[in-house]
Amino acid sequence: MQRYTVKGTISSFKLNIRKSKSLLYALVGAFAFLLFTFNFSGVATAAAKHYTELQFTLLPEIKLPKYERFVLQNGLVVYLMEDHDLPLVNGTLLVKTGSRLEPPDQVGLAGFTGAVMRTGGTKQHSPDQLNELLEQRAAAVETSISEAAGTGSFEALSEDLETVFGLFAEVLREPVFAQEKLDLAKTQAKGGIARRNDSPDGIASREFRKLIYGNDSPYARTTEYATLDRINRADLLKFYGQYFYPNNLILGIVGDFEPKKMRSLIQAKLGDWKSSPKITKSPLPAVSPAKAGGVFFVNQPQLTQSSVLIGHLGGKFDNPDYAALDVLNGVFNGFGGRLFNEVRSRQGLAYSVYGYWSPRFDYPGLFIAGGQTRSDATVQFVKALQTEIKRIQAQPVTAKELALAKESTLNSFVFNFQDPSQTLSRLMRYEYYGYPADFLFRYQKAVAATTAADVQRVAKQYLKPENLVTLVVGNQTTIQPPLTQLATQITPIDVTIPSPPPQAKN
Description:
Elements: H1 2-7, H2 10-40, E1 68-71, E2 77-82, E3 88-95, H3 109-119, H4 127-136, E4 140-145, E5 150-157, H5 161-173, H6 179-195, H7 200-213, H8 225-229, H9 233-243, E6 249-255, H10 259-270, E7 294-299, E8 305-313, H11 322-332, H12 338-346, E9 353-358, E10 366-374, H13 378-394, H14 399-411, H15 420-433, H16 439-449, H17 452-462, E11 469-474, E12 490-492
Parallel strand pairs: 2-6, 7-11, 7-12
Antiparallel strand pairs: 1-2, 3-5, 3-6, 4-5, 8-10, 8-11, 9-10
């Protein structure tokens, strides 16, 4: 008991260190300020400069921390990156799977597999025993499956690494998918279905993806009561058995460890895990635009404002024009961007407005613009968005706009490498999707080389004003002028939640 109290939690441990550093920095800063004031109190206030006149030195060149990559005989890919700043070790696992690969009549299966894999315990430890062992060490082990990948993670103090990594390996190799934990997960999912229309923005996001990708697309379909009822424990075991093999995984570990010992630990816990000769790259679902325009409406009589989304199908990160499209995002967005200046500041139509090209790694993303506006400004807001999309195609980007967009993009580049775990996660993600390890640095150089002509060229090539899909979630009676000013045909969308199927009688 005393040992547990002394350790506290990992988050508390980190917080205490940060507080100590913050206090030190604050004292040093205060001393420097007093020294500056004492020595330079006679400097005239007229010497102060406007923020636009400030000059800053160039950011230092970013270099990747040293790391090691190797592959076990069973096919498990491993990345190791040392970081001895804190006595902590973190691990991340990527599994080549995803909810987009689950059967269309069992939407939710992948998510349940990822969740109950952890909550359901292992062959050696019940759920309660597993939780207790981790809590005693202020450690964590988690698993999940999202749209395009399965993930696992562990977090431990360095002195508990062997124990926690052993539990992590158990969860990966010996999950039992306890029935009561699946039942609990399904109950929680049913609660989520019942509440899914509580948020106007949530409705807009969900229904917009259906309009772009199609109702039956794995990138847009939703979990329903009926799909939940078709999922049982055997289905979880089958889904797990299709993808969880060492030759289908990428493991990354960063933190305070000795590399030789870490390699031995990985070999001891995962080296004898049998690979699967049947593992092949699963074909990805085809993607094509479900709609090529139109105005769609979800009536929510209780609302006093409208949530608006307009856009169309987009592209992928590996597009050669990705950097120029990202600079285009900078021209559109943020303080000083065209949408902010025109739609928010000059016309006062929305507090928040945005528009951006949003790619994905291995399937087309979206071009999307939108925001929230007053009901009586809905039509004007949509027209303002349409106007700005057309204007960026027709009106050349100014030197000032280009400089601001490129500088904000390049200056934010450093935040991709704030800590080693972030860097390691990026390297793993690039390998997972088949991108080169230096992809981000190539992107950085391409942004620096982007010209105003490039921005206008990609705006003309990739933005399709004639194919914009418009979705409004709002109050039909208070949207005046009516949406018919945008199009002669307004297609209503029914978001009524299908009732649960009747329970079978015993």
